[in-house]
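Our consortium's second objective concerns turning raw sequence data into structural hypotheses that experimental partners can test. To show how far this objective has progressed, the report includes one record in full. It was chosen at random from the queue rather than selected for favorable results. The single chain below, 247 residues long, was entered without modification.
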Amino acid sequence: MPDKKAFEEAKRKIIGIDRQRLGIGTLSEKTVHAILKNYYEPDEDRQEIPIENYVADIFAGGEIIEIQTRQFDKLRGKLSAFLPLYPVTIVYPIPREKWIIWIDEETGELSGKRKSPLKGSPYTVFPELYRIKAFLKDPHLRFRLVLLDMEEYKLLNGRGKNRKIRASRYDRIPTELVRELEVERPEDFLQFVPPELEGQFTTKDFAKAAHISQALSQVTLNILYHMGTVARVGKKGNLYLYEASDF
């Protein structure tokens, strides 16, 4: 279960209690990263630790924690250096629900909050896992998926009449820690196979059951097959037939 009190303490440390009234200029560009780093390790003496020509976000108790919001391929060098020495947990934040706030660069004025119709899903980690596929079977590598509700601040510097097309994201401010999913061993990947998928299934069946796109379903099953979570047991037309493994 998430430690809500510790999460609120980490938020206060980074952005203060009344974050909305502090002014947008006081916010960091990597607030999500900073809050999670202080949530998982409040002791700053254990943060930003040099190891093997790299800097670990957290090193405590003989273990490393790396917080990565995207582009897992940038972790390849660190993983090559860290994994032979220590267990490594990659923390991946996922916005579950998001409220958009627009910033006028000229006046600093903030718009009212608008709830995004898009909801985050744990399956969004799988394209990132594909980027480090060669490391996934290392017994020292673990993952923690953190579902957060958050406010996203965007600059009105894009194209179009309302300046919102391809506008820049300024920052994301977590408001609540909702859930943490742990993946510590290959069998933990079974939690991503929807329970209603009994027997054999295709990527289309998986996409429908998981409420994700066909493209994301294909990447997800590629990784689940690589990890031995599912087996390929035949074909149905041009599609592979899969079956969940019995660990």
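The partners drew two points from this record. The chain is about 25% helix and 30% strand. Residues 94 and 147 are 5 Å apart (CA to CA). Both points have been shared with the crystallography group to help prioritize constructs.
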